[in-house]
Amino acid sequence: MSKMNIPDEAVKIFKELKINGAEATWDCHGTPVVLHKYIEIIGAKLNVSIDSLDVIEANAKDGIVSMKCVASIVKAGSARQVISYGECSPKNNKNAYPYAMAEKRAVDRCILKLANLHGFVYSENEIDDKAPSSKPKTAEKKVIGNEPTVAKFINEMNHEQSYTEFNTTVKKYQGAMIIAKKDDPDLYNEAKTKYELIKANHTRSIG
Questions:
Q1: What distance, in Å, lies between the first and last C-alpha atoms of the chain?
Q2: pLDDT for 47-63, tens place per residue?
Q3: 156: domain range?
Q4: Disulfide-capable partner of 180 in 82, 100, 146, 150 (CB 3.0 to 4.6 Å)?
């Protein structure tokens, strides 16, 4: 996507964040869309904190999921917090991971809001099913390969994490745990057992 198709406001913000707007975006029928990995980079550069990520609506059978994300950044002694939602249903999603997609959409929207990019550009997860014909297969494999899974959750949890890091990890895999509880009870129980052990240790430490 050429720079001239990116709104001037967005170009300015990309420059401030030292991100190549032409590489970070692509043109979806005239709409500037930011690749998910670059939204993660933006979040890291701004030190965005995901304060909460909650499932508002869940219907696994029908593939309908809605998540609420609360995120914030602290800069120059002042804090700024935003709230956004990620919705996923057969009407706007075709992959087999509605929980993960709803989560990505909610988080991506919050990051774009905190970066003052929301409204000028959009996350690729917002229009995942409308990607150019030259991208879908490669893009879909990449998204699926990076999906949160309970196996990753088990590996990522550890007793050396701080209380805040542990809670962040738990929230990250909340959607995956909901799916596993129904589809893979054994793996779910393994993750739950480890989670409860680490949580108990943190509780004793705080007490």
A1: 54
A2: 999 999 999 998 878 88
A3: 148-207
A4: 150
